[in-house]
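Checklist before submission:
- one chain only
- standard amino acids only
- sequence pasted in full

Submission:
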Amino acid sequence: MTVISAGPLTLVEDDGRPSLASQGVGPSGAFDRRATHQARALVGDAGRGTAVLEVLGGGLVLRADAAHVVAVTGAVGAVLVDATPVDHGRPLVLRAGQVLELGGVEVGLRAYVAVGGGLDVPPTLGSRSADVLARLGPAALADGDVLEVGSPRVPHGGPPVPSLLTPGTTTVDVVLGPRDDWFTRDALAGFLGTAWTVSPRSDRIGVRLDGAPLERRVDGELASEPVVRGSVQVTSAGLPVVLGPDHPVTGGYPVLGVVTADGVDRLAQVRPGDAVRFRRAPRP
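Returned file contents:
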């Protein structure tokens, strides 16, 4: 497939590098894993871990240089084949020469494009994922790039996948700890009771949130310790940052809680200015 227009930021992502933290390598991988798995299933790649495209904000235009089965999931916006609207969340058959276009997204932020057989780019440390912090994996797509595609399976041909994204406040579950005892009781109540605003400085490294600063009960600095996807770090300014897939493997800010896996998928789709609330979940 040939990239006619790469859009604002389109990355190749798969399931990432989840087992290399001890070597100082972050997990990376698709931000919205649920949408990624849906797209793979629609093109017959369920369970294969194949690489897909993560499209920030839409604007991607691809030309099929051979026949392919593709699917678009995640953020919702116009999807067109040869300028004709087609369905989001279902398999699409492209003939050689046809053009797939993603318009600007209307709900959500990141769309996912799967191609039957997966994108066949060279792996780095066992993954085809682009890590924007560590600068590992393939570069962001550019106009004129040619994408190689692996051997496809026959798609399942199941029913379309409905988008569960809705505009408005996004509520995610969070397990408090391990450093919730660094914050006052009022700060914890404020953390769970506030509609936080998504900062325009958010990216794949972390979803930054604006609001009233959270007051610490413990002063001083914390020695760097391991962090995971979904960790809620509280910066020196008292504001929370939910770590995304390209997070560093350690951090020195106290981690007030950890957002559940489903919650991180939901945060992949929040836009600057959106409201986010946290709901306390029991410890596993």
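Reviewer check: The longest strand covers residues 99-115.
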